[in-house]
Amino acid sequence: MNKLHAMQIFARVVDVNSFTKAADTLQVARSVVTRAVQELEEHVGVRLINRTTRKLHLTEEGCQYYESVIRILKAVEESESLHKAGVANPKGTLRIDVQTSIAKCVIVPHLHEFRDLYPGIDLIVGTGDRIVDLIEEGVDCAIRVGTLGDSGMIGKQIGVFQRITVASPAYLERQGIPLSIDDLVNHRVVHYTAGKSPRPPMFDFLTDAGPESVRMMSSIQVNDSDTYVALAKAGFGMIQPARFSVANELRAGNLIEILPQNPVPQKPVSLVYPHREKLAPKLRAFLSWSTALFERSPLVSHSNRVTASWKAGVRPATLLSDVSDERELMVTA
């Protein structure tokens, strides 16, 4: 059974209140119409239409099913119109917001590829670690790092990145090198905050017993990832940044990894946008391109082992044709 075709036939039968008229307007045999409705009823497991010699009457379940069918057929029609209208050549201005280190290390080095693929799209790229309100600030899409909470935004995880605990040689010479988590009691950190409700300075680790969060001491707080790294290099304390964001500093010896036996939990990287329905071709193009970019990026992992990322109980959303693994979310980190 072609379910979509059967739904179209069922809707036409209801609209004209006749199997015969539906067959005439669809230019098919009456037996085709009858069989399609019967197969639908068998599929859903309930009678949709009560038939008499003179009239047709929708059952209560039939009324509910008809309303669902109309929404589905309308969505299919809109999707086809959207693609015909310009998916192959999207145009317009697209506003995106990207966390600083992701923009600098992953997006910007490849942004020329997007421009070459979609010359009709003008980009406005906002960078920073502040959590912007997509609706109030007119942002089409954001790339966010960290756990996403439950709300009306649409979120799609596109990768995870490895984090690392590091400090400068000067800091370690002054404070000593911690050899275990217990040694952190006398150490300080640079406190990084980006959300509206920042938590106290905490360091996160994976241990044999499971994830462990350690309350740390800090005398300085920042909300920008570049400043976060710069202060660590200057000896203000330890930090737990993305490994890719300090790769050059590690190679140069400006920062040194500590407690490698206790890795830091990974953080998810997600695309976030306001709506699932009627996506503009320009937004759909960026979602597809950025998803593919993260899939091939050596800086981002795609391991399923993500600690403290997607919260249990977040409702999965309906999949889009080329934007999978969506969830209804609110950015909280």
TrEMBL record:
Residues 1-59 form the HTH lysR-type domain. Keywords: DNA-binding, Transcription, Transcription regulation. One of its GO terms (biological process) is DNA-templated transcription. Pfam families: HTH_1, LysR_substrate. PROSITE patterns: HTH_LYSR. InterPro entries: LysR-type_TF_proteobact-type (IPR058163), LysR_HTH_N (IPR000847), LysR_subst-bd (IPR005119), WH-like_DNA-bd_sf (IPR036388), WH_DNA-bd_sf (IPR036390). Belongs to the LysR transcriptional regulatory family. This is LysR family transcriptional regulator.
